[in-house]
# Entry
Amino acid sequence: MKIAIVIAGVIVLAAAALVAIRPDFLKPASLALVKKSDIFGFSPGMTFDETSKLVTQRRYRCQGRSAYVLDCEVNGAKVTITSDETDALHPIRRVHAELINPGSQDAAVKSISEQFNAQAVKDAREGWTWTVGRGLKLSYDGSALTLADEAGQAKR
# Structure
């Protein structure tokens, strides 16, 4: 009986040491690659109802510019959410966030790449671009981020 307790203790200590050395050991492989595909919780494809719930839950200060364009103030950033006016669920098609103090462009690009788990591509017209999530296009021009569902827009 004492030997079983000692063996169980050694196994627990080995597992604790492994987790201390490699914290990602217990994460499922599918979660390791997923980072984010939203800006302040807003993501193309979200319905009007989901957007309204998010605004209410997070207590964002928003006002409608028109029936399908919402302007919000989130952590000092001006965020504009544009929804599809032809679809009955009015899903978000584009999220645009003007950042107040983005810092150096190289540091911002590196941080964005890490957060979205995507490789940046330099684009002469739009600055930096990434493909994130389920084929969404993220772009950064040095002062603003834009997340859009270009595949969904091309289908219409």
Observations:
- The CA atoms of residues 48 and 63 lie 14 Å apart.
- The chain has five helices and eight strands.
- The helical segments are 2-21, 29-33, 48-58, 105-116, 150-155.
- Residues 28-32 have pLDDT under 50 and may be disordered.
